[in-house]
Amino acid sequence: MNWMQVEQYLGGDDRCVLPLGSTEQHGYLSLCVDNILPEKLAHDAAAPLGVPVFPVQPYGLTPYFRGYPGSVTLRLATYLSLIRDLLDSLHEQGFRRILIVNGHGGNAPAQGLAGEWMADHPDAQVRFHNWWNAPRVWAQVQATDTNASHASWMENFPWTRLEDVALPQEEKAALDLDRLRLLPPKALREYLGEGNYGGRFQRPDSEMQAIWDVAVQETRELLQNGWVK
């Protein structure tokens, strides 16, 4: 879209989608998994509704992965200021219903910021949508394989894997997340290894497409019906 098309759109609708991501290690998968998934999901969900999707915010909060090359993190204060600026800017333009499609669990502080921001902007609504653990998506994941986690099969879609990268065939036992959360970056890398928190590294694409279809529908329904009138 160009600016004139956005202006025309705002004459009849005030919804938009803002994907949030992170650039960080995902084992054998792309460093951009958490950017690719929320942005593609937002487009797939919003396209039939004609709702604009803004570019994904590609850097988030991932200090624990600093031991892995290519993992880029922001400081918490920087990140919250950035999210506030984005919401302020969208509001100034005329958007009043903003769906945040979040692709990275570490970005959770942005959800609290959104609540604070709405209290200061009572004419606006912000929905914070962790797409991967939304009720129906998570149910589909669990029905497929209960051993599912960061950098495992549940993030391995055709659009997140890399060409000419061979994936292990074995299933990795689920790691101790409580221990992980207490480790500094170097020790975390030593404990975690290639980056998978637990689970197989890949499952059939037909199973992944079934999960994706649920994710698209669940996100689209939020765009359509997830607002207070």
From TrEMBL:
<keyword id="KW-0479">Metal-binding</keyword>
<keyword id="KW-0378">Hydrolase</keyword>
<dbReference type="GO" id="GO:0046872">
    <property type="term" value="F:metal ion binding"/>
</dbReference>
<dbReference type="InterPro" id="IPR003785">
    <property type="entry name" value="Creatininase/forma_Hydrolase"/>
</dbReference>
<keyword id="KW-0862">Zinc</keyword>
<dbReference type="GO" id="GO:0016811">
    <property type="term" value="F:hydrolase activity, acting on carbon-nitrogen (but not peptide) bonds, in linear amides"/>
</dbReference>
<protein>
    <submittedName>
        <fullName>Creatininase family protein</fullName>
    </submittedName>
</protein>
<dbReference type="InterPro" id="IPR024087">
    <property type="entry name" value="Creatininase-like_sf"/>
</dbReference>
<dbReference type="Pfam" id="PF02633">
    <property type="entry name" value="Creatininase"/>
</dbReference>
<comment type="similarity">
    <text>Belongs to the creatininase superfamily.</text>
</comment>
<dbReference type="GO" id="GO:0009231">
    <property type="term" value="P:riboflavin biosynthetic process"/>
</dbReference>
